[in-house]
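Ticket reopened. Same input as before:
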Amino acid sequence: MAADTQPDEDSAPLLSIRSVSKQFGKHVVLNNISLDVAEGEFLTILGESGSGKTTLLRIIAGFESASSGEVWMGGERLDTLPPYQRRVNTVFQNYALFPHLTVEENVAYGPRVARTPVDEIRSRVDEALAKVQMQAFAKYKPSKISGGQQQRVALARALVNRPQLLLLDEPLSALDANLRRQMQMELKTLQREVGITFIFVTHDQEEAMVMSDRIALLHAGELEQVAPPDEIYSRPATSYAAQFIGHTNLLQAEVRNGMAKSGSLSWPTHTEEGKALFSLRPECIRPAHDTQNATRFRAPVLDHAFHGASELVRVETVGGQVLTVRTSQRGSLRGDVELEFSPDDAVPVRESGK
Amino acid sequence: MDSVLRFEARSPRWLPLYATLVFAFLYLPIVVLMVYSFNGQGVGGFPPRDFTLNWYRLLFQDEAIWAAVLNSLVVALAAVVIALALGLPAGLALDRANFPGKGIFRRLVLLPLVLPGIITGLSLLMLFREAEVKLSLITITLGHGTALISVATTEVFAGLQKLERAQEEASLDLGATYWQTFWRVTLPNLRLSIIGAALLIFTLSMDEIAVSFFLIGRDNTLPLEIWGRLRRGITPEINAVSAIIFVFSLLAMVLWYRLRAGREGGAATGAEFLPVAEPSLSA
Amino acid sequence: MFSRAYKTAVTLPPLLWVAVFLLLPYALMFAYSFWSVSSSQQIVHSWNLSNYAHLLSHEVYRQTLLRSAWIAARVMVLSLLLGYPVAYLLSFHTRGRKNLLYQLVIIPLWVSYLVRAYAWKTILGTDGVLNTLLQYSHLTSHPLQFLLYSPFAVVLTLTHIYTPFAFLPVYAALEHIPRNLVEASHDLGASRLQTFWRVIFPLSIPGVIAGATFAFVLSFGDFLAPQLLGGPSGIMISNIVVNLFGASYQWPLGAAISFCMLAVVIGLLWLSDRLERKWAFS
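Engineering reply: fixed in the latest deploy. New output:
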C-alpha cells in the first residue's frame, strides 16, 4: 500500500500539525489530523465540502482554535497566538478586500498596521502589485475591478507582508474555467518565484494535481493520503483516494496463494491472503497485445462517452463486473473486445471509512 | 485548549460595563416612575415608603381618563386603517412602479418620520383652517394617518424586498392574472409585515402628542389629557397611568418582535429599520 | 411586469393623499408666512415680507434659534456616544443574547415620549427623587437647582429619548459589514483596536450620519421637553412658534418661523443624504 510521504527536505518542516481535532458540539469536523509541511512547498488540502478542509485552514490562520492537538511553526507554538501575531497570511475565498480603500491602500494595509516607514511601504507595495501585474489599477476601488483582478490584489495584499506561510482558501472558485486555468499556472509560477510555502485549499482535484508539490486528501475529517500528485494518482492509498481523483475501477477480490480473484478476473499479487480491494485505472486497461504476464479477458462494450482527448468505454466481464476503459483511439473499442492489464496496475487500496 | 478561544468574541473589557450603564440610563427613569406609582408619599422624596395601590384606584375611577383612553383607541384604530390603506399601495408603488417624480414622492412620504411633529401638526392646522374644518378627533385622526403612512410604507417595502419576485412570476406563468397574483401570492406574503405595521402604527398613535397638540378639538386623547394635567401639577396618578402605558407598550413591542422574527427567521439585523432610519429608500 | 392599470391604481391613492395632506399644507404654510393678521384676529391675505423682516430684526429669534441648535448638537453627540458602543457590542461581540439585548434597546422607542419626559421631571425636581436621594445619602446638603428647568434638563431628557434613534441606523450599518473583512484585517496583523478604526468605523459612517441627523433634527424641533423641563432658560424655537399659535394668535409670524425650520430641516436631510452616499462603500 502506498504510504503517506514526508516532505522532501531533511530539515525540519516549517509547519507541524500535531493530532489536531476539532468538534462543534457533537459534530466532529477534524479527527486527529497530523501533517508536516516543508518550507517552500506548495501543499494542497483537497476535499469535498464538509471534509473539514476550510476548518483546518482557519485553525492554521487563527480564526478557529482546535479542540485538541497543537500547531507548531518554525520551532515555536503557533496556535496559542492570535491571528495578528502569526507570520501567516490568508487569501480569502471572496477576497475580502476593504471596499473603502483603494487597491494600493488595501495592499499597504499590513505594512501600515505594522508601522513600517512610509518609503519602505511605497516600494513594497509597488513590488507586490508588480508581481501580480496590477500596478495600473493602484488607485482603483475594489468595486471597480473584476473578480480576477480582485483576486490578484488579495494575493498581493497577503504577499506584501512576506509571511512564512501563505494560506489560500479556494481563491479560484469564483472564476470561470478559462481564467481559472490561467490563474492556476500563474499561482504556481508565483510560488516558485517568491519561494514562500503555500497551503492551498480546493475541492477541485484537477486543480490540485496541476499545482501541488504534495496533496493532502481530506475526507470527512480524516486524512486519507498525503503524497505528490502522481503518486496519489498511480498509487492511491484508499478507495476514496482512488475514486476522488480521476476515474477508477474498484475490484473486490479474494486473495489466495498469491493470486487475486475478482469475478472472472485473476492476477498475481503480493497482497496478504483474504479479502482485498484493488484500484485499476481505466487507461491501464488496453487492447490485448500478448504482453507477458498481463491478465487478458474478453468483454462486450456497453456504451462509450466522448471526453475530448480520450474516450471512456464501459465493458461487462463474464463475471458481471462493469469496467471503465480509457482509450485515445476514438471508436476503436466496439462490440466484443479483447483487453488486458498488467498486474502491477491493480493497486491494492484500503477501504475508506465513510 | 481554548487559549486563543474565539478571540474575536472577546470585547474590550470596558465595553460591557459601559453598555450596562447606558441601559441603566435608559431604564432607570421608567423604573423609578413605576416604583413611585406605588409610593404613598407621592411623586418625589427618597426613599419611597408606604406601598399603596391608592393611585391606581384613583386612576380607575377617573372618568376623564377613561374618556381620553376611548378617544385614543378610536383614533388609533382609524389611523391604522388609513395608514395601511395608503401605505400598502405606496410600498408597492415604490417597489414596483416607475413614474416621473418617484424620488420626490418617496421623500415626501417618508418625511414625517424625520420631521419634528410641530411642522406636520402646524401645516395641517393651517390646512384645516383654510378649508374651514373644525378641529376634532377627526382632524387628529387625519393627522396621525398622514404622519404614520411612512411607517406602513417602510414595513411593506421591507416585506416586499424579502418576497422573491420569482414567486409572483411563477404565479403569472401558471395562468393567474395580476390581481389574482396579488391576492394569492403577494398579499399572504405581506401578512406579517402588515400586522407588524398595524401594531407599530397603533402604538405610535396611542402615544402621539406633537401632531395632536395642534389638531385637538374638544375631546382629548390620552397623551393630551395627561399633558393637560401636567400643566396643572404633578400627581402620582400620572405615575400610575404612565406605568400602565409602559406595560402595554412593552407587550406590544414583544409581540411585534416575535412577528418580525417569524418573518425573518431569527436574528435581529436592524435591517428592518434601515429604511426607517434613512428616509431615502434606494429606489 | 405589471399592467399600467395596476400601477396607476396602486400609485394614485397615496399620491393624492400626500399631495393634499403633505404638499398642500407645506405650501399653505409658505403662503401664510407672507400674510398678516388683523386686529380682530382675522387672517388677512395680503402678501408682504413683514414677518420675515420681523424675524431678522429681532434678536430673540436668532438667539433662540442658536440655543436650539446648540441643544440639538449636544443631544446628537451624546446620543451617539451612548448608542454607538452599544450597537458595536451588540453587533460584534454578542452571540446568544443578541435578540434579547436588541429588544431591550428598542423598547424605550415604544414607550410614550410623554411618559419618559415626565419620568425625568419627577426625578430632577428640587423635591424629586434624585435630589432627595443625594441629600439622604449626604452627598449634598441642599437641592441642586440646575437639574430641572434648565437647558441641562432638556439635553438630558432628549438624549434619553433619542439614544435609541441614534442606535438603530448605526446598528444596521454595523450588521451590514461582512465579517470576513474583520478576519482579513486581523490576518494582516491589525489588533482589535486597529481593526475598529481602520475597517469597522469607516464602514459604519453612513449609519452614524443617519443617526446623527435623526437625533439633531428631532431635538431641534422639539417643544415638549423644553415646555416640561426647560424653564425660561431652556426655551427653544418651537416653543416660540407654539406661543405664536396660541393666545397671541400670530399665525403668519409663526408660519414664517415654521417654514424656516422646515427649510433648515430639509436642507440638513439633503446634506445628510449626500454625505451618506459619499461614505457608502458597499
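DSSP finds twelve helices and no strands in chain B. Residues 75 and 141 of chain B are 5 Å apart (CA to CA). Please confirm and we'll close it.
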